[in-house]
Amino acid sequence: MRNIWIIARREYLERVRSRSFVIMTFLIPALMFGVSVVPTMLANRGENGVKRMVVVAADRDTAEMIRSRIEQEQDQEKSPLSNTRQSRRKSSELPIHFTVEVSTNTAEAERTALTEKVRLKELDGFLWATPDAIAAKKLVFVTRDVSSFIENGVLAQTISDALRRHALKSKGLTDDDIESALQAVEVDAQSPLGKNAPNPQIMFLATLGMVMVMYMTVLLYGINVMRSILEEKTSRIMEVMLSTASARDMMAGKILGVGAVGLTQVGIWALAAGIFSAGTLAATAGMIKGVLSVKLLVFFSIYFLLGYVLYSTLCAAVGSMVNSEQEAQQMQFLVMMPMILSIVFIVNIFQHPSSPIALFGSMFPFTAPLVMFSRIAMQTPPWWEIAISIGIMVATIYGMVLLCGRIYRVGILMYGKKPNLPEIMKWIKYA
Questions:
Q1: Which of 110, 218, 244, 386 is 20 to 30 A off residue 146, Cα-Cα?
Q2: pTM of the prediction?
Q3: CA nearest 165: which of 150, 180, 155, 186?
């Protein structure tokens, strides 16, 4: 145990003091912030500008209805008094800010003139709502921002709503009758747990974030174990270390040391997230209530440690077998394939946590860390399934430690060509 502790301590201090650790510790949160927050900030900044558009229709009442609906939606977005559920939904989806002018000149020359104004940036766009276009239910909106599909899609919904209201009003319905007829019906999915159930959207995002942290950390530090062994093997430092420690002590020390580095980095991220959100904790307490429960954090730690030990053991065996970085990259893809497949199917598992593929993935030890944790977070399975999953992982880790330990014991002293499967079987047999 003394040798294991010394090797683990050396691996930990060497990596924590390295520049790559400091860079990755700050870079990954910065990237997550950039991906999640910066696009929203840029989008909000772009929304501050006002665009000018023209609605062209043969009937002034039709054009006025379209203009009034566009302006009304924008007023609802800006108004703090729009507190109905439907108003909140629309304001969250309406990124457009237009000043709307009305024209009843539907001559082709007018369309050509407006098109030229749009081309010369004198006008941001115009809507061609002639009777034929309305009858065909296909209006043309000429704009330079054809790639703004979200903005244009919301504008199309607003125009469709305006035309429906105009058609109903022409049938003699009052404004109140039209508002009641067009009001959307919302279906609120509720858990049998009642008020104690967490918000499903918040739960999905929180679970996805924790799964990605587990995936990246296990992947990153498992590969670090492999590269550390390969580096010492190619520099012949391994031969000197074997004079004072056994191969098993060296493998265990590397796995524990690098694993401690991973836990340190995750702890720093968690502490930083807590400090960053402290100022808004009171405002978001209702949203995160019941999401980051003690149970979820405990199972995250359990499956993170089990997954890390399992994959680090495999990576240690791979690092001892190969002789170059290129060979290691070829082998590490095969080792990490189950984790990659877990990420591929993770959204389906979130939606159907009791499906056969989710059940199989939670029992298969190489996919269980991500799959079973996702099931526990979204819809906790029976306790016996969790116990069987953990038991299978522990048994697999024990078997992999014995198997990979034999490969490691021989592989760290083997140089030259890349070993094939029969040679690896001989290592396992005679080690």
A1: 110
A2: 0.63
A3: 180
